[in-house]
Design brief:
By secondary structure, the protein is an alpha/beta fold. The chain is built from 5 helices and 12 strands. It has an 8-stranded mixed β-sheet, with helices on both faces. Bound molecules: cytidine-5'-triphosphate. The site of cytidine-5'-triphosphate (CTP) has 14 residues, from helix 3 and strand 9.
Length: 219
């Protein structure tokens, strides 16, 4: 397969966690490092794709040739991703918060004398992946990730159908040496026709193998 099958296409990638503010000093976050999404964006740019990377709060360098847009919250990521359409390919590698505080306190929340705990009201965030997949400017190929601690195949297949995406890359999280924070990973990629196992290996190599599958789907 030609290495430059993505050349000239517009590839949109989201990566990293989102931080949902509780008050001026606290937030709800997650363990995503952004490494997988950054590796995908770097590989897409190397293949000659016009690559936009919407990045949550991470401490990674911007890959060469990538147009990076930094965001913090799920709402900001939603606006930045939909605002970056049209694209030929969307790869949703970000670990987007599913819930966000119903209100952000203006000042730091203080302990109240005599009261025990604190109850936070959380509300659902918009599903960026599903919104891209049902958008009037839907990319030709929409690929999502599924981070699972159990039942990887069943959950990934369910997300494929429910979110109406073309491919889902499932990975196991919560085990040493794979998933969030790790440099290595194993991806189980599902589409309507079957599945492929990529790795185990470094996220940089997995990014290349994943883009090989994407390029093959586009031909
Ligand atoms: N995702 C998204 N917007 C959200 C939540 C998730 O775009 N608000 C995307 C992620 O970027 C990923 C995919 O959905 O590509 C799967 O995310 P995951 O958290 O594993 O799945 P959920 O749909 O949130 O399902 P669940 O929490 O039940 O596992």
């Amino acid at each position: 397969m030609s290495r430059d099958a993505l050349a000239g296409l517009r590839v949109l990638v989201s990566a990293g966690p989102t931080f949902e503010d509780i008050d001026p000093v606290r937030f709800i976050g997650n363990r995503s490092s952004g490494k997988m999404g950054f590796a995908i964006a770097a590989a897409a740019a190397r293949r000659g794709a016009g690559t936009v990377l919407v990045a949550g709060p991470v401490t990674l360098d911007t890959p060469a040739g990538v147009d990076r847009r930094d965001v913090r919250s799920a709402a900001q990521m939603h606006a930045a991703v939909l605002g970056a359409l049209p694209a030929d390919v969307y790869i949703g590698a970000a670990a987007v918060a599913d819930f966000t505080p119903a209100e952000v306190a203006e000042g730091k929340i203080k302990k109240q004398p005599g009261s025990g705990g604190l109850t936070l009201e959380l509300v659902r965030t918009a599903d960026i992946l599903a919104d891209v997949a049902s958008h009037a400017l839907r990319p030709r190929l929409v690929l999502g990730f599924a981070a699972e601690t159990a039942d990887l195949e069943a959950n990934a297949q369910d997300k494929l159908r429910r979110k109406r995406v073309d491919m889902i890359a499932g990975n196991c999280v919560g085990v040493a040496g794979s998933g969030f924070e790790a440099d290595d990973n194993t991806l189980h990629v599902f589409d309507a026709t079957g599945s492929h196992v990529l790795g185990p290996g470094p996220k940089t190599g997995l990014a290349e193998a994943l883009l090989d599958l994407v390029a093959a789907r586009l031909q």
